[in-house]
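fyi for ur records
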Amino acid sequence: MKVAYFGYRKWTESILRNLEDNEFEIDAFTIHDSEYSSNEFRGEEMTVFNPKEISELDLDKYDALLFYGWSWIIKQDIVDNKVCVCLHPSPLPKYRGGSPIQNQIISGEGTSAVSLFKMGKGLDDGPIYYQESFSLSGNLKEIFSRIVEVGSRLTE
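which gave:
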């Protein structure tokens, strides 16, 4: 299986690094102002691109496109013609959209979930493949560590 991994936030880099020993053939993509500590994956440079120009990439060679911690709308023709999987740190359908962790903490939630879902027509909607709960206790570093742990396990 050939997979394209799109991410740019520090915690999504940790999930990508956890996939380095996975048997999937993975091409990693990131953006110019990525929070990643390195733009290298499995000894090769990641493709750095403008997320608004995703349709200019050769996506036909991939069986699945993974969007982890992603903040941009993917064009509907891509969503309709490719398996587009998104990781969202909330118990979807609750807390769709931006700042899901912050909004859950502000709302007084004690637990959250990592949701892996097939992208649909709306924002953070579509059929959920996997959803696993985790605690929102502790500081943000601890919370993101749990998201990485669950997200890595669900992706494998």
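The domain at 2-155 is CATH 3.40.50.170 (Rossmann fold). thats all i got for now
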